[in-house]
Amino acid sequence: MAASAFFFALMAGLAKVAGSVVPLFEIVFARSFVVAVLAGAALLKSGRGFRGAETRLLLLRGLLGFGALSCFYYAVVHLPLADATVIHFTNPVYTAFIAAMVLGERIGVSEAVLGVFSLGGVVMVARPALIFGGTNMLAPGAVLVGLCGALFSASAYVTVRRLRREPPTLVVFYFATVCTLLSLPLLVLHPALPEPHMWLVLLGVGIATYLGQWFITWGFRLERAGRASAVGYLQIVFAAGWGWLLFHEVPDLWTWLGAGVIVGSTLLLVRLHPIR
Q1: Which of 15, 74, 83, 121 could form a disulfide with 261 if both were Cys (CB 3.0 to 4.6 A apart)?
Q2: Cα–Cα distance between 258 and 176 in angstroms, integer?
């Protein structure tokens, strides 16, 4: 799980590097295409094939994942890396609420209060001028897009919970393939030929994503979900490190306080509303 957090943070850092010169959907396409090829090769090697028992849910997961990925990359490009990552990590709270509505999982008053606290953490990170004053607030539009990405991500995770009969590699393959096909026409509308070194950065985005997904799959197989999820929050720390190394971004006190509120609320939520 620590390795997955490292590679997901690296993926976000490389996407931010690419986003300075490459259109958004070119990053989405490159990332998705590389992952689709790697996942497809793994399926062929295993002899599993590409047919799924629940094709509609697999396609829905891909559609929701496309929305989550597009919003997250937009937030990464337009916000400090650590802040974008913190905002994205509100998705476990939304997952619990969406699962309650869609899957009928029980959720109580304590969980609702923790959800409110988590949003309070987002306010600390965003630092809206109406509350905090000053000029160090984050771009409201980018924060909103980041929150939309977290909601899409939560919806995708709930869909994955319905896909327990499907092997993880097949779910990843459909997700990446749908994102590749959806981003291709948007890429054609705004084509841009990257510099040679930028091709390596885009390839790195895809490879880091695949490694992150590979390690997180094994992490959830080897450890209880609650403890595994807790280790996954190292991604915030790694994102802050990449932000400092690559972009000279230094998270301020409000970012760390907001991250603490969001992480604490989510960990308590996992204890009250365990993943099974």
Answers
A1: 121
A2: 31
Q: Which residues contact 41 (CB under 8 A, 6 or more apart)?
A: none
Question: pLDDT (tens digit, 9 = 90+) per residue, 252-272?
Answer: 888 888 888 888 887 777 676
DSSP code at position 164: T
Q: What is the pTM of this model?
A: 0.86
CA distance 68 to 76: 12
Residue where the block lists tokens 């990446």: 176
- Tell me what pLDDT residue 97 has: 77
Write the pLDDT tens digit of every residue in 154-167.
888 888 777 777 88
The H or E element containing residue 7 is helix 2-19
Cα–Cα distance between 129 and 112 in angstroms, integer?
Answer: 26
Q: Which two tokens stand for residue 90?
A: 């509100």
